[in-house]
Amino acid sequence: MAITLAEINTAIAASLGAATGIARVQDAAKPDPDEGLTEGIADLPMLQVYWQSLDTSTGSENDRIAMRGGVRVTQCVFHADVYARQRGMISEDAARTLELAEAVQEILEAQDVKPYFGLIGVKSFRWTAERVTFDYAGVAYAGVRFVITVWVF
Question: Is 44:85 a contact under the CB 8 Å cutoff?
Fold first, then answer.
């Protein structure tokens, strides 16, 4: 993998952090509590981006053997959690969550030409999203989780 997971994490956090309405971005690649993950939530709405998993498929070695290309395709999964507001009134929670989901979706849809997320090395990506009630430090928050799958090789 020519680029690091931390570089991808930071690129996603920087890109999605520009979404309308996001007050704070937490990038798991940053050890500094002012930019990285924290034990509690002070500023809402907040975006938290962190690496979840990776997979180098067993089929990717065929191209290295047959074509001697030396290419290994790696699929990296990141979560981008949007904490919209502390749970309170379901109608307000749902409306704010939907508003922020659309703002982040707009940024993702704008990533239609390389370099994706401004990072050379990201060859392709896809995403899914779902509404979530997060439990963070014993407090419930309405929000949305984007699962972003990035391919590098």
Answer: yes
Task: Sheet containing 24-27: give its strands across.
Answer: 24-27, 46-56, 74-86, 139-152, 122-136
Q: Is 96 helix (H, G, I), strand (E, B) or coil?
A: helix
Please state the rounded mean pLDDT for residues 79-98: 97
* Position 83 pLDDT exceeds 70: yes
Q: What is the DSSP string of 5-48?
A: HHHHHHHHHHHHTTSTT--EEEETT--STTTS--SS--SSSEEE
Matching residue, tokens 């919209």: 84
> What is the token pair recorded at 47?
């975006």
Element (H, E) at 136: strand 122-136
Residue 113, classified by CB atoms within 10 Å of its CB into exposed (0-12), middle (13-18) or buried (19+), is: exposed
pLDDT at 68: 52
Q: Is residue 93 very low, low, confident or very high in pLDDT (cuts 50, 70, 90)? A: very high
